[in-house]
Predict the 3D structure of the following.
Amino acid sequence: MTDQPIVVVHPDGDLLARATAARFLLTVIDAQSVTTPVHVALTGGSILVNVLRAIAEDPLREAVDWSNVHIWWGDERFVPAGDGDRNEVQAREALLDFLVAECGLPEENIHVMAGPGTNGIETADQSAKAYNEELAAFAPEGKSAPEFDLLLLGMGPDIHVASLFPGHAGLEVTGVAATGVQDSPKPPPTRVSLTFEAINQAKRVWIVAGGAEKADAVRAVLNNSPIAEAPAAGVAGTQETLLLLDAASAS
Ligand code: 6PG
């Protein structure tokens, strides 16, 4: 990482989720005042699901023009459509179903990483290829993906972000925005992930991490540990990089 992320510490996990939700909504509102459509990339994990639930409950959501928001994912578990392990399914339950039903988010603006059995896709590499084509359709000239206005990332205790794991081949992938991932140390073993190339052309990247089990990972990021050991240390937005923490993860 070239620049240190800005660190924001909230007192506990609940406030981390609610403050991140408010920050998300204000950021989308601000981005919409500059350009439309706005492209937002989500990820999975318990903390991000809590953030999505908090967005659904925050009255500021009414100030967003959801018809001009596109939703993408930073990574996905390669399991079939409708499986409760899918980051997409969890995001739909926490927020997206509500936004489509009540707030005017068009279903066609939700860009999922396909699972096995969808559109003839059988492998994670095929899913990544299809996602690369979809990303390219919304990318500016010369880019492989949209310059996401906001990309949210969780972080594992092993310092992974998206499905880019320490020591894994996905860390080295260049020239494409999304890649298939095999043998993930965190189940399920087969996944699809954005690459650093796509992540680091995002305007704003926020790593959201709570809980004492993340404290060592936070330290590794702030110490600029080598990316091969600490993938999260390789993340940088072109305009903003935030590390959003609770008191336990900041300890
Ligand atoms: C996954 C998850 C994962 C998650 C982090 C943080 O695909 O398995 O998306 O990458 O984002 O492990 O998870 P928690 O927020 O639950 O700690």
Strands lie at 6-10, 38-42, 69-73, 75-77, 150-154, 178-181, 191-194, 204-209, 240-246.
